[in-house]
Design the sequence.
């Protein structure tokens, strides 16, 4: 984690082709690809996010980083009353 801005946590992840397990949050999450490509599964559907692009995962949506992802990802997680699931 890089830090906090208000109620949001800002994180940086080096994707290096390592998949991240499926998760779901009570609040929305923004995913910004600085370089490389994010291969994402959102509710079982494949989504590709390229450099300079951002994808916002809606609250309660199941998502996971898929194999084949590489580069640098900035994650902004809002934390509301419900916290993380």
Sequence:
């Amino acid at each position: 984690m890089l830090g906090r801005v208000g109620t949001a946590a800002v994180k940086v992840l080096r994707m290096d082709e390592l998949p991240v397990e499926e998760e779901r949050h009570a609040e929305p999450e923004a995913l910004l690809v600085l370089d490389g490509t994010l291969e994402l599964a959102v509710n079982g559907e494949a989504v590709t996010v390229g450099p300079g692009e951002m994808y916002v995962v809606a609250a309660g949506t199941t998502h996971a980083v898929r194999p084949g992802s590489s580069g640098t990802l900035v994650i902004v997680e809002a934390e509301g009353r419900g916290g993380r699931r």
Notes: The beta strands are 3-5, 8-14, 29-42, 45-49, 54-57, 63-65, 70-78. Confidence is low (pLDDT under 50) at residues 81-85. DSSP finds no helices and seven strands in the chain. The longest strand covers residues 29-42.
